[in-house]
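Re-run requested by the PI after the first attempt was lost when the workstation crashed. Everything re-entered from the original request form. Ligand of interest: pyridoxal-5'-phosphate.
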Amino acid sequence: MSRFWSDHVVNLAPYTPGEQPKIADLLKLNTNEHPMGPSPLVLEAIRAAATDSLRRYPDNESTALREAIAALHGLDARQVFPGNGSDEVLAHIFNGLFRRGDRPLLMPDVTYSFYRTYCRLYDIPCRTIPLAEDFSIRVSDYTAGHPAQPAGIIFSNPNAPTGIALGLADIEAIASANPDVPVVVDEAYVDFGADSAVALLERCGNIVIVQTFSKSRSLAGLRVGFAMASQEIVDGLVRVKDSFNSYPLDTVAQAGAIAALRDQAYFDQAREAIIETREYLTQQLATLGFEVLPSRANFVFARHPEHEGGALSRALRARGVLVRHFSLPRIEDFLRITVGTRSECERLCNTLSEIFLKTH
Ligand SMILES: *Cc1c(COP(=O)(O)O)cnc(C)c1O
């Protein structure tokens, strides 16, 4: 609290990212980063972009990147809205689409916690809808009509931190039942085994898809994310962006992201490795007695009937293994564990066995 702050700053509830500590021999399975580095073509493109031309401002419209994303998804470049990480893209979506007076934004009670942070920042009323007992999104809760017209609907697919994915028919049902409000599908993890709602864009003009280069393209450090939507919606987002920062993507990031899209073979290999290791990790955790939710992401969400989540996460940390634990209703017994390499997953499971031996 400071007398220099604007009034609303006191009431913000900033998002807490997973920690990035400097501990030797640390196993970091807490922020869903990819265990492999980015494609060598990306590094080459970034080096090639590091020239005298950096004295110039970047292309403020990221034209070449938008065209590359559009080509990949069969869209028009005017339907693509890139930003400095998908968190920034989401911020512009909240600001530009969800600030509708008293109309609430609908979201699952368990989903990406940044959504609530943005509601605070932009003063958007939020109505949370409980996930079903099995932690899936209950489609009928979103299609049966609402007490008041919502400002919009948002969820991640696969959902975070559950990892559970919704099928396209369900997403279409939600979008069609709410034709006058934006339905935002945050697909940060879609490349690890869910279907992208891009396929629905032509039929459902109210769908907004958000994707990122941070997870499946191993580029969390480059900060590139993007939305795909109707041109009408993108035009609104561009108005917000150009009232905030016209140059969200620097020259280097644009070059690196374009190169990442060009290396399809590397992308396929990197995501298949994660999917394979995820199935291995799921089995190993089940063998250790965990209940593991069915994940389509690059993490698993698991709880143990005899071990409290917070205590387990602390015991792992004491042994140099970081996982994510959320002290939140319904999910406080769970650990969110990033799928690393096979040997990293082995180390995690060995460490868990050690902890269990000690506490029994
Ligand atoms: C990681 C993540 C993001 C943010 O990704 P950035 O592009 O790195 O900002 C957005 N949504 C969800 C659900 C995520 O897990």
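Saved to the shared folder this time. The two ends are 46 Å apart (CA to CA).
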